[in-house]
């Protein structure tokens, strides 16, 4: 049996590798996947909330690759806005 629709994708980063993800959370940048519906039932999308403003990446991702893109977004915002480097 395959993955049940809406089951949160597995993380592939752990501990120290979550630095950018944790930094984003601590700085009001929420990035996460959500499952599609209707015609997009088997795909995932990524929502990015910054200071209450919500954007959705229009690209479609698979269950297997959506978390890679989530972490790429985290790395992007961390590298762009983190002044503690």
Summarize the structure.
The chain has 85 residues and is of the alpha+beta class.
Structural account:
This protein has 85 residues and is α+β, with helices and mostly antiparallel strands. The chain has one domain. The protein has 2 helices and 3 strands. Strand 2 and strand 3 form a beta hairpin. The radius of gyration is 14 Å and the shape is globular.
How would you classify the helix and strand content by structural class?
Answer: alpha+beta
User: Which consecutive residue ranges, at least 5 long each, have pLDDT under 50?
Assistant: none
Biggest sheet details: 3 strands, antiparallel
What Rg, in angstroms, do the CA atoms define?
14 Å
Mean pLDDT: 89
Quaternary assembly: single chain
Shape: globular
Query: What's the number of structural domains?
Result: 1
Number of helices: 2
Number of strands: 3
Indicate the topology.
Blueprint: H1 19-26, E1 29-35, E2 44-50, E3 53-61, H2 66-81
Antiparallel strand pairs: 1-2, 2-3
Give the key terms.
about 80 residues; three-stranded antiparallel sheet; alpha+beta
